[in-house]
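lol forgot to send this yesterday, sorry. struct tokens for the thing we talked abt
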């Protein structure tokens, strides 16, 4: 079973640690990609490392946390096969899974408290992709990714 990967910058560190504990309590295999302290650091490399794990198939799902979540989502969504969803509420988390088959949950520690983040995480983990008309759209995204790869080479 591939691990769930989790990462944050300094602004998301405290929330990441609490979410990691929740994941481990659920007996899920978790790989923490950092940061490992609350000391100031830059988010792009943490988001990139996590997204690369997803893109290359070493992990199936990931969780990113920074102050707003916006930067992490921007970085993660640059990699092929990554569908990072910035979620500030439970409804968005469920829809990101049902309709978009998101594989990275992005949270902004400046916008959600721990209780909200826990509910969002649980909804995200427990919601499955619906398929149907959404599969057609997901396949369109995959086609776009292939065209972008071809254009780069």
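and heres what i got for the seq, position by position
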């Amino acid at each position: 079973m591939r691990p769930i990967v989790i990462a944050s910058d300094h602004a998301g560190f405290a929330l990441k640690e609490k979410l990691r504990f929740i994941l481990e309590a659920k007996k899920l295999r978790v790989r923490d990609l950092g940061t490992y302290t609350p000391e100031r650091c830059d988010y792009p490399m943490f988001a990139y490392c996590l997204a690369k794990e997803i893109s290359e198939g070493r992990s199936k799902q990931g969780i990113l946390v920074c102050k707003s979540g916006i930067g992490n989502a921007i970085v993660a969504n640059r990699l092929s096969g990554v569908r990072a969803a910035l979620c500030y509420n439970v409804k968005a988390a469920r829809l990101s899974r049902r309709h978009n088959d998101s594989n990275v949950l992005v949270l902004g520690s400046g916008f959600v408290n721990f209780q909200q983040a826990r509910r969002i995480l649980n909804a995200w983990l427990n919601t499955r992709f619906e398929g149907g008309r959404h599969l057609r759209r997901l396949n369109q995204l995959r086609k776009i990714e292939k065209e972008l790869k071809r254009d780069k080479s």
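The mean pLDDT is 96. anyway ping me if u want another try
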